[in-house]
Design goal:
Layout: E1 5-11, H1 29-44, E2 60-68, E3 71-78, E4 85-92, E5 95-103, E6 109-115, E7 118-122, E8 133-138, E9 148-152, H2 157-167, H3 180-191, H4 195-198, H5 204-229, H6 238-252, H7 256-260, H8 265-292, H9 305-318, H10 321-325, H11 329-357, H12 363-382, H13 388-404, E10 409-413, E11 417-420, E12 427-433, H14 444-450, E13 455-457, E14 460-462, E15 467-471, E16 474-478, H15 480-483, E17 489-497, E18 501-510, H16 524-550
Parallel strand pairs: 11-18
Antiparallel strand pairs: 1-3, 2-3, 4-5, 4-8, 5-6, 6-7, 8-9, 10-12, 12-16, 13-14, 13-17, 15-16, 17-18
Length: 551
């Protein structure tokens, strides 16, 4: 039996114990000495080496694994003996345990361990393997044989879960950033084991892939560092802030570990701070320029409403409280005066809208305008300085009410005009969009042009060169060259505006001065005149005949 089967014992406690519980297959002093020699060799821990092979693996066959109590045996069966001496190796990673067979004096095969040049014969060997995994039988003692000999787990359940996680990790050359989670999970699982359980885990692959993922992190960080270096000198330009934002976005997309490798992150933040500091200085200058560009308070009209509002808006809404407190005092005083003056002008405009167009406004618009106008009137009467919010509360209802009147147009000059035949004068009609007088936004002419610049006489569209339109709201001029083509009597002129709004005005053509018709009585002065002429003619004729008779 012993010259046919080899038992190798793997102790589940994973501690190299050497050989124990030696079994003897026969009697005799020789076999006892061999067993004693094997035990002494295991205890002193002589290093194991690989003996040269005279036969190959084909001479052996894996039989299996079986348990006997707490002991696990891997067995191999001899298929044939080609020479008197055969060497077999159990191989796992860098560990090589050589098992040899020699023929004893009785011609039986004897198994033993070769340590150096010493052969220790045994009939049955038990030994612990410290490393879990797959073992190979190799006839030449190398560790690259393709023949699997045996596989057996020496790990408990917790250890096996961790080892499987490590073994399932991608190969080093295949690691990508997407493998980060499984790598970190494997490391966390390993660190969760006890120190004793960690001893049995093969973490070489885990260490290798962690080095690889760390290199990926460093490469990512290097890309961001290049973006930061590309910022260069900070300038108040769109290109500069785009570079700063690109670096910031790329940095924020990194993991905490990757960010720790960005060595010039402080340069990026310093560039951002400098840019926005320059921007704030620019904003303050812009506000200052707008205030300085305003007319003096006594020169302001309602047409300046937007310039005053824009300057007030940027001062109050864009500047910080600290910037407002440190603002140029002269400019700040000018802005306050401009706001106060424009507040009074807006009040006048609101009162005018209520008076002239109150009936044309929507009820809600009218009520809101009335409320803010009354409040403003009380403030002005009290001599109070309006705040920025109070300025807005009055200004915008006034202009919203004016906007609501956009589709209302009125003839402010030339209504019911008259023209006499033979006159060289023109008829001039001026049309104005309803709203604030002297407003900064007179859209009347724009609305006329947008609608196609169409003028109708008595319902017929005309494009006569003798009818012109010019800006100032809309001034329509009908020249005498066109008027003399019309019949006497009443006519209409219709002007088209945007949103299909039309304005119609009447004008009249009057006849020239009257001449007596045929058969009518003639003035006696005319008759006397004619008679005098005829009488003078008769006298001259009679005198001529008297002179001729004397001759």
């Amino acid at each position: 039996m012993y010259n046919e089967t080899l038992w190798v014992f793997l102790n589940e406690r994973n501690k190299r114990k050497g050989f124990s519980n030696m079994k003897t297959a026969g009697k005799g002093l020789f076999k006892m000495l061999l067993a004693f020699t094997v035990a002494i060799s295991c205890l002193i821990g002589i290093g194991m080496t690989t003996a040269a092979a005279e036969n190959y693996i084909r001479d052996f066959e894996y039989s299996g694994v079986y348990h006997e109590g707490d002991e696990i045996y891997i067995t191999a069966r001899e298929l044939g003996i080609r020479t008197a001496s055969t060497t077999v190796a159990f191989v796992h990673s860098d560990e090589v345990l050589v098992v040899s067979k020699e023929v004893d004096e009785d011609g039986y095969g004897v198994y033993g361990f070769t340590r150096g040049t010493e052969f220790i014969a045994i009939e049955s060997a038990k030994c612990s393997f410290q490393t879990d995994g797959i073992y190979f039988l190799n006839g030449n003692g190398s560790n690259d044989a393709p023949y699997e000999f045996a596989s057996h787990s020496l790990l408990n359940d917790d250890q096996r879960v961790v080892q499987d996680m490590i073994d399932d990790l991608p190969d080093v050359d295949d690691v990508t950033e997407g493998d980060r989670d499984v790598i970190e999970a494997a490391r966390a699982a390993y660190e969760g084991l006890s120190d004793k359980d960690k001893e049995l885990i093969d973490i070489k692959k885990l260490n290798a892939v962690e080095i690889q993922i760390d290199q990926i992190d460093k490469n990512k960080a290097a890309e961001v560092m290049k973006l930061i270096d590309a910022i260069g000198d900070v300038e108040l330009t769109d290109e500069c802030i785009e570079k700063i934002n690109a670096a910031l976005d790329a940095y924020r997309a990194l993991t905490d570990k990757q960010q720790s490798y960005v060595e010039n992150a402080d340069d990026m933040y310093a560039a951002e701070d400098k840019y926005y500091s320059m921007l704030r200085e620019s904003v303050q200058k812009k506000v200052l320029d707008k205030i300085n560009a305003l007319p003096a308070a006594d020169k302001l009209t309602i047409e300046n409403y937007y310039d005053v509002y824009d300057a007030a808006y940027e001062f109050n809404e864009i500047l910080t409280e600290k910037e407002q407190a440190g603002f140029d005092t002269t400019a700040k005083k000018k802005l306050d005066e401009a706001v106060k003056t424009m507040y009074s002008l807006a009040l006048e405009a609101g009162e005018q809208l209520l008076s002239d167009y109150g009936a044309d406004l929507e009820e809600e618009t009218y009520n809101e305008l009335k409320k803010v106008v009354d409040a403003a009137a009380a403030m002005v009467e009290a001599g109070k300085m309006p705040s920025y919010d109070e300025f807005k509360e009055l200004l915008w209802p006034v202009f919203y009410a004016s906007f609501e009147l956009y589709d209302i147009y009125k003839v402010i000059e030339g209504a019911d005009a008259a023209w006499t035949v033979g006159s060289t004068d023109s008829i001039v009609i001026r049309i104005l969009q309803a709203g604030i007088k002297d407003k900064a936004f007179d859209n009347t002419f724009f609305s006329f042009e947008y609608a196609g610049s169409k003028i109708y006489i008595d319902g017929e569209l005309t494009d006569s060169k003798f009818i012109t339109a010019e800006e100032g709201s809309v001034i329509i001029t009908i020249m005498p060259e066109f008027l003399k083509t019309l019949s006497t009597g009443e006519h209409t002129i219709t002007v088209l505006f945007d949103n299909d709004v039309t304005v119609t005005s009447k004008f009249t053509i009057k006849p020239a001065a009257s001449v007596p018709a045929s058969g009518e009585s003639v003035s006696h002065y005319v008759i006397l005149g004619i008679s005098a002429v005829l009488l003078a003619g008769a006298v001259l004729t009679l005198r001529k005949h008297m002179v001729d008779s004397v001759k």
